[in-house]
Amino acid sequence: MLLEALSAAILGLALAWAAARRLPHRLPARSLVLATGVAGALFGAFVTHSALGAASLLAVLLGSAAVCSASLSLLLRPAGRLRGRSATA
Predict the structure, then answer these.
(1) Is 81 helix (H, G, I), strand (E, B) or coil?
(2) Would the pTM of this model clear 0.90, i.e. be above it?
(3) Which end of the chain has fewer CB within 10 Å, C or N?
(4) pLDDT in tens, 21-76
């Protein structure tokens, strides 16, 4: 289980670093992105390990990557200005 947690943390850090490097204009501060990536990956590994038991490391890392990418996607800001008008105008 220690190997799963360490692998998930490294995977989350790598995914968060790639996202912060590729989309710096749409993400908040790099430290927040990196912390969210690691936390999301560890939480995904925990949930996957709890659901599947002592399954393969690959299954745990897939679940970890899925939750990590979902948590990183919550940090994204819109690319441009919103085009819609407010209802009060």
Answers:
(1) coil
(2) no
(3) C
(4) 999 999 999 999 999 999 999 999 999 999 998 778 899 999 999 999 999 999 99
Identify which of 67, 62, 51, 66 has the alpha carbon closest to the alpha carbon of residue 4. Answer: 62
- Identify whether the C-beta of residue 71 lies closer than 8 Å to the C-beta of residue 35: no
8 neighbors 37 (Cβ within 8 angstroms) = no
State the amino acid at position 80 in one-letter form.
G
Distance in angstroms (rounded) separating the CA atoms of residues 67 and 48: 10
Spatial distance between the Cα atoms of 69 and 86, rounded to a whole number of angstroms: 31
